[in-house]
Design brief:
single chain, alpha/beta, Rossmann fold, five-stranded parallel sheet, 5 strands
Length: about 130
C-alpha cells in the first residue's frame, strides 16, 4: 500500500475494507500494478475516518467476512457520500446479494475471487485502461 501520502497522484484510489490485513496486502499486490492507489482498512472506524476526512476515494471493496450488521450502516454512509463500493462475500446467498444492492453496492463478488475478472470489473467500473 502506498504509505507516502505526500506524493500527489492522479491515479484512482481504491479503499479495501477487510478484517484480514494479509488479504489487503494480497489484493494490493494484484490491484496496484494496474495503476491504482490502494488504501487498506481493517475496521469500521478506519472506514469512517477515510469518509469523514474527505480523502479522495474512487471505489471501496468491502469484504463482509467478520463484520456484523453494522457494516450496512457504513454502506449507507458510503452511498450518501456518493462513494461507490463493491461487496465481496464468502458465500453466494441471494439474500446477501439483495441486501448489498439495497444498501447501495454497485456489484457483488463471491469468494474465491478470480483475479482477472475482479481487475476487469474494477477497470470497467472506473473506466480506465490501467
Amino acid at each position: 500500500m502506498k504509505k507516502d501520502e505526500n506524493k500527489m497522484s492522479n491515479n484512482p484510489t481504491i479503499l479495501i475494507l477487510n478484517r484480514n490485513k494479509k488479504n489487503i496486502e494480497l489484493m494490493d499486490k494484484v490491484i496496484s500494478p494496474q495503476g491504482y492507489e490502494i488504501q487498506g482498512s481493517t475496521n469500521l472506524n478506519e472506514l469512517k475516518d477515510f469518509i469523514n476526512t474527505n480523502k479522495k476515494i474512487d471505489l471501496v471493496l468491502i469484504d463482509l467476512t467478520g463484520f456484523d450488521r453494522r457494516i450496512w450502516e457504513e454502506c449507507e454512509n458510503l452511498r450518501e457520500n456518493k462513494i461507490p463500493f463493491l461487496i465481496i462475500s464468502p458465500q453466494k446467498h441471494i439474500q446477501l446479494h439483495e441486501e448489498s444492492i439495497k444498501h447501495g453496492a454497485e456489484d457483488f463478488l463471491v469468494k474465491p475471487l478470480v483475479v482477472k475478472e475482479m481487475v476487469t470489473l474494477i477497470n470497467e467500473f472506473l473506466k480506465t485502461d490501467a
